[in-house]
Amino acid sequence: MTEDALSVFRTEVADWLDRHCPASQRQPIVREEQIWGGRRRVFPSDDARKWFEACRDKGYTAPDWPVAYGGAGLDAEQEKILKQEMARLGCRPPLYCQGLWMLGPALLVYGSEDQKREHLGAICRGEIRWAQGYSEPSAGSDLANLKTKAEDCGDHFLVNGTKIWTTKADEADWIFCLVRTRDAAPKQAGISFLLIDMASEGVSTSPIELISGDSEFCQTFFDNVRVPKRNLVGAINEGWAVAKELLNHERKMMAAFEGMLEKPAMALLELAHYAVGVSEDGRLADPELRSDIVSHLMRETAIAQMGERIYRQGKAGQMDARLPLLMKYLGTSQAQVKDELILAALGGEGLSMDDESVASEGVRKMVKQWAFNKSLTIAGGTSEVQLNIIAKRALGMASGERRS
Amino acid sequence: MILNQEQIMLRETVGQFFEDQSPVSRLRGLQQRPVEESYDRALWSQMAGLGLTGITVPEAFEGLQFGWMGLGAVSQEAGRRLVASPLLSSVALAQNVLLNCASKRQIESYLPRLLSGEITASVALDEGRFFDPGSVLVTEQNGQISGSKARVLDASMSSLIFCVARREAGDLGVAVVATDDACVRITPARFMDLHGCAAITFEGVPADRTEWLEGVDVASGLEQAIDQATIILAAEMMGSARETLERTVSYLNEREQFDVKLASFQALQHRCARLYCELELAESAVAAALMALDDAASSVSAQASAAKTLANDVFSLVTSEAVQLHGGMGVTEEMDIGLFLKRSRVCNQLLGSSSYHRDRYARRFGF
Known about the structure:
The complex is a heterodimer. Helices cover 43% and strands 13% of the residues of chain A. Chain A contains 11 helices and 8 strands. In chain A, strand 2 and strand 3 (156-167) form a beta hairpin. The longest helix of chain A is centred in the C-terminal third of the chain and has 30 residues, at 287-316. Chain B has helices spanning 5-21, 24-29, 41-49, 67-80, 87-101, 104-116, 218-254, 266-294, 300-325, 337-349, 354-364; strands at 121-124, 139-141, 144-153, 160-166, 172-178, 184-190, 196-205, 211-212, 256-257, 260-261.
């Protein structure tokens, strides 16, 4: 698109957003009001419903997906403009969904036409909420070691096994799963990618209590679950390729995770001023905290600049394919640094997650977030796995010789 | 860095030129030369011949106007080979002090000779132990300049000194003084990284032999020039840091112990992967700062401080780790790794340490 056409597009988008996004939906998002969609979806307010429906009808829940599948068919530049304009007006994300961030992009590459038609639209319209069935109790970083079995029974697969860390599986309608369809060496060669309706007989979930007091994650059990053959994505025993495509999207999403979270009641700097005060020369009263905050701000900015750099490289046809590999590791580590600084600034006020006599609700949320965000460097491929990938693929370091 | 076609060609030409004419061994050659020679004049003439003096200079002043990205790319290439040249001292710092702080007449009187490479200039900034451009004790009294400056880069090779001094009225000024003036005493020295500097004492340089730059706002022009040079230095440091990491990874890919390549050990892989993450993070900040210079963005000062801090920290981390990862070879003069280590120490202090820039950044954001 020419610069002129983009500038016209920007005006149109800004105008559309201004007309359709109610004032209440321009307030910073709070977790209770995030819209995750699904069969059991509820809207916290009429405004929230209106905003969601306007975006859905315009294709803005999945702006970069083709129009035929419920998206808006925007190219990278247009999508960026939409994001910028939404950020400028403070519009809330209209839909949160693993289907949007992970399954959809993988289906666009590996799904059959029927699968795309059946599932992508339902995701964009917020009708189906998806969970991710990857990890198992004995298959974490060594994901290919998974044991959940799908047995070929003619017109269907019979699935038995268990998945763990299935985010919000107790509220999800469908789950995309990696299952073993043959015992093969290497282990990756016997894995298939299967879509399972969680309303099927034999599927059950059990929430896992976390150190943050939340239960974001579940364990999901499959006991003789019948899954139609048409729910196989890609070829049989070739699900690992689909899995990896999807993981790339998950890591991209996690690198930018912070932007989608509820904003803390106070920005870090404001919080530090409030909590530790300033000395006579105008400097933050705690010099070590001050220096740590500056380091954090510089790095946080540099991470955003790296994202921008990757975008510009892509646009200029000068893509350095190594850079996207770094974003998950850098983004999630830095989010944790920020949480540590918030708690350091809070001092004694940051010592309780649920006692109202110790801290206000806003502060308690920050403390919970600190505990919850410890999972960021574990979920979606641990930082250690990311470093393995970087050493091998970006630096070309020799593979480990396994010696007894 | 996203470069345009002209800048890509410039980088490739200059990279090849440095590879052929100024490998790291050429820097070592300076050890055999008198201390006054802080770089090789013949090399510098060739660099000037390539037009490297005029990359950011507007066409109105006979420059190439290839932008700050262009000069940043050239500095990175120089950093890869630890090239000793007045690219930082004269081109990035002195020329921009002139452009930002001088009147049009003064620019026209000095710039052509600087661009042709006929002369170079050095900016006398530092006085005390640390970089602190706000505290200036060299003063103008009864029209005469007196006081001492420290660590003036390449001063013994320059024809002119741009001396930052306190005017009689108390404001900051920049005086142009000839290095061969009888009242200017220059004591050359070599940093441990073999790059050169000098201590300068001004012993009452009389008014008729000094020329004060007469631009509209000398103090902010000076700050702007320091920001520009800081970002260019950060770019040079990124080139050196990248070269150090690449040399280290290829060493680990070659050397065998316990019958396997060292690179196959996960402990070493993770260390290198972390270094690479830090390297690209800093590179992103430096590239954004160069872009901010080209856009004349209001955020340049903060970005200069962020870029220099990240470049300082990563250069020092990468070189320290590189020595360790080279094992015993890392502490020998046979390898160049030690030179990169020393260069990182020197660059960390030039134009402000991380602690200076973190404080400056915090003050800009009001805390």
